[in-house]
């Protein structure tokens, strides 16, 4: 599937770096086009879950992607799903 066909916010790569640390690459061309060092994004696992601020680890304007590295640190009290820390 070409990235042009992907919906904004689609996870295109997911890696388990160690027992608690993960790396995800998300198709987000609008964010990637305006990204700068030190900026962060707000992620939500589900519409009713907690907002998780994550620093942008890297981004590609050419591919329209952003990458985040984070650690799972607990449970979201609303959704009972794992919560993340950057």
Give an account of the 3D structure:
By secondary structure, this protein is mostly beta strands. The chain has a single domain (8-85), classed as Translation factors (Elongation Factor Tu (Ef-tu), domain 3, Beta Barrel), CATH 2.40.30.10. It contains 1 helix and 7 strands. β1 and β2 form a beta hairpin. The longest helix is centred in the middle third of the chain and has 6 residues, at 29-34. 15% of the residues are buried.
Biggest sheet descriptor: 5 strands, antiparallel
- Assign an overall shape: globular
Helix/strand/pairing class, anyone?
mainly beta
The counted number of beta strands is 7
Number of helices: 1
CATH class: Mainly Beta
- Stretches where pLDDT falls below 50 for ≥5 residues? none
The amount of helix comes to under 10%
Overall tally of structural domains: 1
CATH superfamily name?
Answer: Translation factors
CA distance, first residue to last residue: 29 Å
Question: Radius of gyration, rounded?
Answer: 13 Å
* Share of residues in strands: over 45%
- CATH architecture group name: Beta Barrel
Fold blueprint:
Elements lengths: L9 E7 L4 E7 L1 H6 L5 E4 L8 E4 L2 E3 L4 E11 L6 E4 L1
Antiparallel strand pairs: 1-2, 2-6, 3-4, 5-6, 6-7
Structure in a nutshell:
The protein is mainly beta and 86 residues long. It has 1 helix and 7 strands; from the N terminus they run E-E-H-E-E-E-E-E.
């Amino acid at each position: 599937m070409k990235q042009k066909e992907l919906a904004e916010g689609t996870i295109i790569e997911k890696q388990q770096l160690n027992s608690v640390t993960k790396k995800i690459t998300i198709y987000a061309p609008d964010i990637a086009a305006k990204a700068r060092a030190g900026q962060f994004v707000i992620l939500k696992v589900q519409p009713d879950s907690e907002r998780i601020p994550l620093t942008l680890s890297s981004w590609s304007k050419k591919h329209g992607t952003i990458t985040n590295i984070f650690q799972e640190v607990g449970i979201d009290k609303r959704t009972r799903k794992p919560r993340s820390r950057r």
